[in-house]
Amino acid sequence: MTASLGVALGSGGARGIAHIAYIEAIEEMGLAPARIAGTSMGALIGAGWASGMSGRDLRDYVSRVTTVGETMSRLWASGQLGARIQGDPLAVVAAYLPDAFPAEFAQLKVAFTAVSTDYFRGEQRAFTDGQLHAAIAASMAIPGLFTPVRIEERLYIDGGTVNPLPVDHVRAGADIVVAIDVNGHVNEPPEGGVVPTAFDIGFGATQIMSRTLARNGIANYPPDVFVEAPVAGFRVLEFWRAPEILARADADKDRFKQELAAAIERFEARR
Questions:
Q1: What does residue 106 show for φ and ψ, rounded to 5 degrees?
Q2: b/e per residue, 6-45, with b = 16+ CB within 10 A?
Q3: I need a labelling partner for 145 at 20 to 30 A (CA). Which of 2, 50, 174, 255 fits?
Q4: For 134-159, how does the pLDDT look when each residue is reduced to its tens digit (9 = 90+)?
Q5: Which residues in the chain show pLDDT less than 50?
Q6: What is the model's pLDDT at position 199?
Q7: How far is CA 259 from the centre of its chain?
Q8: Those residues with Cβ within 8 angstroms of residue 1's Cβ, 6 or more apart along the chain or in another chain
Q9: Amino acid 1: pLDDT
Q10: pTM, rounded to two decimals
């Protein structure tokens, strides 16, 4: 019997594109997840993986839709390009999901959890069934950037405000747990000594809080393999830098494979 694998994909905006390199590494080792959980960008990438897209599929798709021209085209089509205050996360998710993407959790090929935050209750909500697109949008509804998502008369905001690295949602039923953090370790100073904008400071503060929450999460639910993706220096909304983000994560794939192989060996030795 092969060890079952649970994978938690963390929040991090554009930095979450790095998840794809580690998904590819897992598949290159001949492995497949039994459970996937994701928060914010991790929820979007994780849902794609759970739908049956391979790491290569995800790389090709993300590389295509994150070019400046394609981004402008999709935002224009979604009606969000001219949004002056806050965008509609459902419209943005709909604009970026591949054609014929599953509408319901039940259509996914791998058990999947999307983590969001119930705004008024101040607690996490783990979506595992029902409408998939709405759950992804709720997980990605970054405060100040997007309006909250209403589901079943509740309002939801970005899951990163309570559980940016949802290890707890893959531990049950998995022999080996992989947790991938894409917060970027630290907020690196901009090149040339440029003073960060108020917008950058707001997102940077969120990243600091997310790192603290993630560390608390892995202390309570220790993963077998913990990855801190080498994506410091990329700003949260720099999706057009997808090739650079992927290249940075690609350089870490061999190390990751060795660590995962060691975790599998430890598991086998305990059996």
A1: -60, -20
A2: bbbbbbbbbbbbbbbbbbbbbeeeebebbbbbbbbbbbbb
A3: 50
A4: 999 999 998 888 899 999 999 999 99
A5: 76, 80-81, 84
A6: 66
A7: 21
A8: none
A9: 52
A10: 0.90
pLDDT at 164: 94
Residue type present at position 83: A
pLDDT of residue 61: 94
Q: Mapped to the 3 state alphabet, what secondary structure does the chain carry?
A: CCCCEEEEECCCHHHHHHHHHHHHHHHHCCCCCCEEEEECHHHHHHHHHHCCCCHHHHHHHHHHHCCHHHHHHHHHHHCCCCCCCCECHHHHHHHHCCCCCCCEHHHCCCEEEEEEEECCCCEEEEECCCEHHHHHHHHCCCCCCECCEEECCEEEEEHHHCCCCCCHHHHCCCCEEEEEECCCCCCCCCHHHCCCCHHHHHHHHHHHHHHHHHHHHHHHCCCCEEEECCCCCCCCCCHHHHHHHHHHHHCCHHHHHHHHHHHHHHHHHHC
